[in-house]
Amino acid sequence: MSIDKKKEQLTIGYLGEQLVGQWLQQQGWQLVAQGWHSRWGEIDIVARQPREAGEEWLAFVEVKTRSRGNWDADGLLAITPTKQMKLWKTAQAFLAKHPHLAELPCRFDVALVRCVRRPSTETTSQVQTDRLRHLSAQAERICRLGEPNFPEELALGQTIKVAHYSLTLATYLEAAFSG
């Protein structure tokens, strides 16, 4: 895979995670962590539903962002039993680091985001291109895209435009699998 293709995948993944995080906040959830790593893997989003919103929950959210024509049902087929086990172990590590959250009921949610690249009319100078190559992947995404500016109200199925992409939060599966 080329470096440019890998960078685009990282960018698309980042935008999908930001979109889902924003949507969760608009649903009344508090983001506890994003991109949390352990030796077993990464949890894209850890969110807490406050007691005022009803029953209190801690959700470990796996975000799959895919382009049109993907082979894996918008990322759903990528949540294999092996992937589920890694997420479960990573969630256990998270709770060990945050024992004050360990008593909350937990669940594993899956968010599926569709992404379409829109044609770009902008050109980038060689100086800009060389400069961007030296930045870390996350810093590059933020510098190039800026923090995504999402609408104040997001809905499932709503398409929004960010940078050179159209994103749609297609599906949100609560308690998609058990640990």
Overview of the molecule:
By secondary structure, this protein is of the alpha+beta class. The radius of gyration is 17 Å and the shape is globular. It comes from Acaryochloris thomasi RCC1774.
Q: What's a concise summary of this model?
A:
This protein is of the alpha+beta class and 179 residues long.
How does the SSE layout of this entry go?
Blueprint: H1 3-26, E1 30-38, E2 41-49, E3 57-67, H2 81-97, E4 106-117, H3 126-133, H4 137-145, E5 159-162, E6 165-177
Parallel strand pairs: 3-4
Antiparallel strand pairs: 1-2, 2-3, 4-6, 5-6
Name some characteristics of this structure.
single chain, 179 residues, alpha+beta, 4 helices, globular, Trna Endonuclease, Chain: A, domain 1
The percentage of residues in β strands lies in 25-35%
Q: Give the count of structural domains.
A: 1
Ranges where pLDDT stays below 50 over 5 or more residues in a row are: 123-136
Number of helices: 4
Read across the widest sheet, the strand sequence of neighbours is 1-2-3-4-6-5
Q: Mean of residue pLDDT?
A: 84
Alpha carbon gap, first and last residue: 33 Å
Q: Can you identify the CATH class?
A: Alpha Beta
Fill in the CATH topology. Trna Endonuclease, Chain: A, domain 1
| Portion in helices | 25-40%
Named at the architecture level, the CATH assignment is 3-Layer(aba) Sandwich
**Count the strands?**
6
Structural class, by secondary structure, is alpha+beta
InterPro entries: Restrct_endonuc-II-like, tRNA_endonuc-like_dom_sf, UPF0102_YraN-like
GO molecular function, one term: nucleic acid binding
Protein name: UPF0102 protein C1752_01057
Family: Belongs to the UPF0102 family.
